[in-house]
Design a protein that fits this description.
The complex is a heterodimer of chains A (128) and B (260). Chain A contains five helices and two strands. Chain A has 128 residues and is mainly alpha-helical. Chain A has a domain at 39-119. Chain A has a two-stranded antiparallel ribbon with strand order 1-2. In chain A, a hairpin with a 5-residue loop joins strand 1 and strand 2. With 260 residues, chain B is α+β, with helices and mostly antiparallel strands. Chain B contains nine helices and eleven strands. Chain B has helices at residues 5-30, 62-75, 97-100, 111-115, 129-133, 160-164, 203-206, 213-217, 233-240; strands at residues 37-39, 50-55, 92-95, 118-121, 139-141, 148-150, 171-172, 196-197, 222-226, 243-244, 256-259. The longest helix of chain B has 26 residues, at 5-30. Chain B is elongated. The mean pLDDT of chain B is 92. The chains are: A mainly alpha (128), B alpha+beta (260). At the A-B interface, helix 3 and strand 1 of A face strand 1 of B.
């Protein structure tokens, strides 16, 4: 055990390096993003479904929309209140939420998700 | 309680039954619905099999077919500014008789026919080979109206469908098409690099009760209707005129008919 000190020193360095990201970022958690609603979205008060549902499950809902529009040609969405919507990401969702950078992107960046919707779908159909 | 093999098997059996029943119960619990439903629009046009009759007698010159092609390019965000012919994307285009009907070409032909342009587009075959080869079911024949559609979300760009289509109706996006789109229709999505695209018989317009864009722009030279409705415009025209289809002998049953 002649190298005891060397081994211990090495271990300490190793542990410090491996835990570096944890203690370096301690107490610096990025704040949850604040979303900005456009005037149109504010005026509408509620989205196609209640806000809590939309926050948690908009991706599942969009998947239902995509499936039905593309594969069955069903484009009409009737929500719980009986209100009708055209199932279109560009023409319905982004018509109200025309501020992608301050609405979609803020959360997506925060959650580190990178959906490729906008490779094809036009993000601000009216160009506001 | 004495442990025996019999006892062990009994407990194991009951547990397995319980575990098996859980997903079933979950499925029932979900079946209650999420409070919304989807439906097709009230104005949607429907058919058993959409078909098209192109009256080439009314489309004698390149100038006559130009606005028709233009109308499609415009509303579907077709990247028309690509210079490289190999990267060209087209949904509806024109060609010579020899290329359109290679199996109906005589050495000496009616000159008028030989020199007029023929409009080409996806034939929306009743027996589409492209759908058979697609490994992801990205292209499929829609049960409800017989349109051969693309689900761009699912396309992995393998191009089997392009090899399978005997009509060259499909184009591949070798590059990002966005910079090459001249007339931007904000209501229709573009495509991305690496997917195949083709004519969709204007499914998005039929869904809101409009005729396809090429039909609208053709001043009556193109008719569109249900092939299996005896009284549709298409059937009336087929009854009164001699029509031909492209490469009929291959058995794909194209739904685009030409009056020559």
């Amino acid at each position: 055990m002649k190298d005891k000190n060397m081994i211990l020193a090495g271990l300490v360095v190793f542990i410090v390096v491996i835990t570096f990201p944890f203690w370096f970022n301690m107490g610096k958690a990025a704040p949850a993003p604040e979303l900005e609603l456009t005037a149109k979205a504010k005026a509408a008060k509620t989205c196609v479904m209640p806000t809590a549902f939309m926050t948690a499950e908009h991706m599942q809902l969009l998947d239902v929309w995509r499936h039905n529009v593309v594969r069955s040609g069903e484009r009409m969405f009737v929500n719980a209140d009986g209100k009708l919507f055209d199932m279109s990401l560009s023409n319905t969702c982004l018509d109200c939420h025309s501020n992608k950078e301050k609405f979609c992107d803020r959360c997506h960046d925060y959650a580190s998700v990178d959906p490729y919707c906008w490779d094809c779908h036009i993000d601000n159909p009216k160009g506001e | 309680m004495k442990n025996s093999r019999r006892r062990f098997l009994q407990i194991a059996g009951v547990s397995a039954l319980g575990l098996g029943a859980k997903p079933v119960l979950n499925a029932f619990a979900l079946g209650g619905g999420k409070g919304y439903h989807v439906a097709s629009g009230e104005d949607a046009l429907t058919a058993e099999q959409w078909a098209m009759v192109i009256d080439t007698r009314k489309l004698q010159t390149a100038e006559a077919v130009e606005p028709i092609i233009e109308a499609c390019n415009k509303i579907h965000n077709i990247p028309t500014a690509i210079d490289n012919k190999n990267h060209e994307v087209k949904w509806i285009w024109e060609d010579h008789y020899h290329h359109v009907f290679p199996d109906k070409t005589n050495k000496f032909l009616d000159e008028a026919v030989e020199h007029k342009p023929f409009l080409l587009l996806c034939n929306h075959c009743e027996n589409p080979p492209c759908c058979r080869v697609c490994p992801t079911k990205a292209t499929f024949k829609r049960e409800s109206d017989g349109i051969v559609l693309m689900d761009f979300h699912r396309c992995i760009g393998c191009r089997f469908c392009m090899a399978a289509c005997p009509f060259g109706a499909r184009s591949f996006n070798f590059r990002d098409p966005r910079p090459f789109i001249e007339a931007n229709n904000k209501e229709f999505p573009t495509r991305m690099k690496g997917v195949v695209e083709k004519c969709n018989f204007c499914a998005e317009r039929l869904a809101i009760g409009k005729m396809p864009a090429c039909v609208e722009a053709s001043n009556g030279a193109i008719a569109f209707g249900d092939l299996y409705d005896e009284h549709s415009v298409v059937r009336e025209l087929l009854k009164e005129n001699y029509t031909i289809r492209r490469k009929q002998t291959l058995g794909t049953e194209p739904s685009v008919y030409y009056i020559v």
